Amino acid sequence: MSHVVTLIPGDGIGPEITAATRKVLQATGVKFDWDEQIAGMAAVDRSGDPLPDATVDSIRRTRLALKGPLTTPVGTGFRSVNVALRKEFELYANVRPTRSIAGVGKFPNVDLVLVRENVEGLYVGVEHFVRVGDDPRAVAESMAIVTRVGCERIIRYAFEYAVRNGRKKVTVVHKANILKMVSGLFLEVGRAVGAEYEGRVAFNDLIIDNAAMQMVLRPEQMDVMVTTNMFGDILSDLAAGLIGGLGLAPGGNIGTHAAVFEAVHGSAPDIAGKGVANPAALILAGAMMLDHVGEVGAGDRVRAAVARVIEQDQVRTRDLGGTATTTEFGDAVVRRIA
Ligand code: NAI
Ligand code: MG
């Protein structure tokens, strides 16, 4: 049987790292049937639309996508395609595992998974300016929307993830001391769901600022962390920084109607087309996709191969202090899998 997947090569370094990732996934022996589609700047250039209907229709059909990074214009221009995809397919859970690879990064024993709420909170984009006197932009106001249903499904997702993956603890990260309602509701639901899992998965909670400090002081104490949209956005990059940066950080966007796997990093326009980008983050996202379709054994082989290539073969791209090209790194991973 082959798994049908929508493949979006993306912008900037996207086509280079997706090519390497495809080769690695093929080397596992798991059969994929790729439906290649465009989005982002590549789609604007060809059709004027950053998210063409054909791409959305494809994901609706396959319910599964592997996506390269997409360039989003800053300030003006079209809204983020990533945000549009999250809304369209209700990709409510953003799952970002962070695990140390020996020899790179500042901390040798990080193994945490950050589960970020992906569609609510401050990122819903309900904001406006208020005029005072003759200044039309005197005050900016923004609204965070947090629902009980949204809190429940993301926190439950984190606990179920912990159970499925043999994890011991879920930490709810919040700011309920100050944001008594929008963050208070998240903590309240966290405690209620946590009580249901008592005896199976441990529960604790941390205030966001303390959580950030704890992650830098003793990251090994973190297991599964679950938090609201903006806190999760920031903490997941912090987590990536602990282990050597964005070149090693994969992510999955999981929803009721589809799942989209991608690297946490962007299109890296400064190094695009030079063949030096690190494909490891997207390759590791490919491993998450293997897990998602039930090919956990193959996912484990990909993760082990990436670690061995970096640790033992010392094949490293520039961001990790090496000289390997994107293709050389990808081919080294293929050799370790074969
Ligand atoms: P970025 O992640 O593209 O780059 C930040 C820095 O990290 C750059 O110096 C880049 O060269 C380096 N870098 C990133 N990925 C790398 C890799 N695989 N190997 C080696 N070095 C790597 O972030 P930036 O510059 O803020 O954003 C560039 C564009 O990407 C923007 O248009 C932004 O909107 C978009 N973006 C898209 C995302 C997505 O599609 N999921 C996520 C984040 C940003
Ligand atoms: Mg981010």
* CATH class category name of the largest domain: Alpha Beta
Q: What is the CATH fold-level name of the largest domain?
A: Isopropylmalate Dehydrogenase
**General shape:** globular
Runs with pLDDT <50, length 5+? none
Give me the side-by-side strand order of the main sheet.
2-1-3-12-11-4-5-10-8-9
The helical percent reads: 40-55%
* Termini separation: 20 Å
Strand content: 15-25%
Query: How many whole angstroms does the radius of gyration measure?
Result: 20 Å
CATH-assigned homologous superfamily of the largest domain: Isopropylmalate Dehydrogenase
Question: Based on DSSP secondary structure assignment, what is the total number of beta strands?
Answer: 12
Please, how many domains? 2
SSE pattern, N- to C-terminal: EHEHHEHEEEEHEHEHEHEEHHH
Class by helix and strand content? alpha/beta
Ligand kinds:
1,4-dihydronicotinamide adenine dinucleotide, magnesium ion
Per CATH, which architecture of the largest domain?
3-Layer(aba) Sandwich
Q: How many helical elements?
A: 11
Structure in words:
There is one protein chain. Helix content is 40%, strand content 23%. The protein is α/β, with parallel strands linked by helices. The protein folds into two domains: 1-92 and 244-338, Isopropylmalate Dehydrogenase (3-Layer(aba) Sandwich), CATH 3.40.718.10; 106-242, Isopropylmalate Dehydrogenase (3-Layer(aba) Sandwich), CATH 3.40.718.10. The strands form two sheets. It has a ten-stranded mixed sheet, sandwiched between helices. A two-stranded antiparallel sheet has the order 6-7. Helix 7 packs parallel to helix 8 (229-242). The radius of gyration is 20 Å and the shape is globular. Magnesium ion binds next to helix 8.
